[in-house]
Amino acid sequence: xxxxxxxxxxxxxxxxxxxxxxxxxxxxxxxxxxxxxxxxxxxxxxxxxxxxxxxxxxxxxxxxxxxxxxxxxxxxxxxxxxxxxxxxxxxxxxxxxxxxxxxxxxxxxxxxxxxxxxxxxxxxxxxxxxxxxxxxxxxxxxxxxxxxxxxxxxxxxxxxxxxxxxxxxxxxxxxxxxxxxxxxxxxxxxxxxxxxxxxxxxxxxxxxxxxxxxxxxxxxxxxxxxxxxxxxxxxxxxxxxxxxxxxxxxxxxxxxxxxxxxxxxxxxxxxxxxxxxxxxxxxxxxxxxxxxxxxxxxxxxxxxxxxxxxxxxxxxxxxxxxxxxxxxxxxxxxxxxxxxxxxxxxxxxxxxxxxxxxxxxxxxxxxxxxxxxxxxxxxxxxxxxxxxxxxxxxxxxxxxxxxxxxxxxxxxxxxxxxxxxxxxxxxxxxxxxxxxxxxxxxxxxxxxxxxxxxxxxxxxxxxxxxxxxxxxxxxxxxxxxxxxxxxxxxxxxxxxxxxxxxxxxxxxxxxxxxxxxxxxxxxxxxxxxxxxxxxxxx
Length: 538
Hints:
This protein is about 30% helix and about 15% strand.
């Protein structure tokens, strides 16, 4: 993963949203863009309709974006590596790859080539279910385009092979010379409005701000000097690891900000037991949530309209947020709450205001050094922005990769942690719907939204519904090795036979009682997108 991290940094988009407008081809894999990122989806639609860009959609469900696609690849959940290895097999075999780019800007090509050699379209089809001829068509569309962009979201990352999936996407993009050019790139679309900013600020267990590694002596010494403290070189725990440690009694207290794990974590029965075993649970949020019911202390926070600061969006664009109204009741801004707690615990955080914090961010974060409040008054800036004269960076890796040469990885397909059998014959995959936001703590308070989407539904293919004797709008029970949920059925061709889909927005049918907490061994992301279930009339 170190090579990938050095090559593609934070997981931010290498390119910009507006560059979709100059892409000749777009490969959207594991992203239901119209429902999760509708603004970005509008750019894709315009590129297809107005400029004739060719869109390839790879998704187990017939999502809305399929209507605009030149080609839809319906892969089996958990087989993305096999699909993309099959495409690369064709690109190499037919001499469609960017030879000069590969020779001058990358390394380890031969090792990757050796692995994909066996992934002929026919062999890839035997794993992923996509017809061999469609794999060939997709390979040619992507490789022959002058500028081709890859877009993906959690349909790629939320697997036990999530890191392998991302590395394979990187392989495909570099193979065709599509990294470091306008209109190309590897573009993960972030799931919330400031998740990019949170990562930029070090809200990951292994880095300081700007992805400076805690294991680096140089980085650690820099932050020790800035903050006047001694810092550990050990990486911390990820979200699911924290829950496991709490369950085992190794973590005694948890402080949760703006997160609702009692609806969003996998294997909710395990998560619930973990929270109950804590000596102290602190929840800081703007609205009540399922997690708050387990809290010993609740800290009311100010919402976006009640505070100053910046948001960093999915294309690395840092933008100003300005206070419109005063915080209500006892609510305080997040930084005031954290600073107050820190000061009471013995480390004084004496910031005057949000801009004062931004000054410190600039001092310790090279990619943010040139981003000032004065400059942001004129509009957003994309990092890296190393000086106050720098215009910001539209796309990354223009002349060279951060690590020097782009690193190809030799990746084999690995099956999901849990596969179907006689007792659990269906694959369950999960995702979002257009009308609701994450765990619904805000969107479910909207009367209009609830009229449009009032409940969770189980999407079932008509062939499966007929075999089970399940009718439209009848209640069904979905059961895995971890638990069961009940919800109404919707009979639809959007899912393939043998696959069912549910969203996770509704506590009344909390699908994460069913999902698998098995994690990617490197990124520690749970496998929300694939688990084995049985489905029966309730």
